[in-house]
Write a structure and sequence with these properties.
mainly alpha; 3 helices; single chain
Length: about 100
C-alpha cells in the first residue's frame, strides 16, 4: 500500500467517524413525531432525518470499509466525506466560541 493510499484511508476513516458522530447526534435531537407540530415543521424534521440517516449510513460504511476488503476509496469519496467533516467541525467550533 502506498503512502498516499494509506493517507487517503486514514482521512476517510477519521472523516467518517466525525460525520457518524454528528449524524447520530442530530438524529437524536430530531422530533418528527412530537405532538403539536405544524405539517411544515413535521415535514422539515422528516427530511432532515432522512438526510442525516443517509450520512450516518455512509459514514458507517466508511468506518467499516478497511475491514471488509472493499475497494479503496476514490479521491472524490475522500474529499466529499472530508468536506462534510470539516464543515461540521467548523460549525461546532463557531458554536463553542460564541
Amino acid at each position: 500500500m502506498t503512502d498516499v493510499l494509506l493517507a487517503m484511508w486514514v482521512l476517510y476513516v477519521l472523516a467518517g467517524l466525525v460525520v457518524l458522530a454528528e449524524a447520530l447526534n442530530k438524529l437524536e435531537q430530531l422530533t418528527p413525531r412530537k405532538r403539536g407540530l405544524a405539517v411544515r415543521e413535521r415535514l422539515h424534521d422528516i427530511v432532515q432525518a432522512a438526510a442525516w440517516s443517509a450520512l450516518a449510513v455512509g459514514a458507517f460504511l466508511a468506518l467499516i470499509s478497511p475491514f471488509y476488503e472493499l475497494a479503496a476509496p476514490d479521491l472524490q469519496d475522500v474529499l466529499v466525506l472530508l468536506g462534510v467533516a470539516v464543515l461540521i467541525i467548523h460549525r461546532r467550533s463557531q458554536e463553542q466560541w460564541t
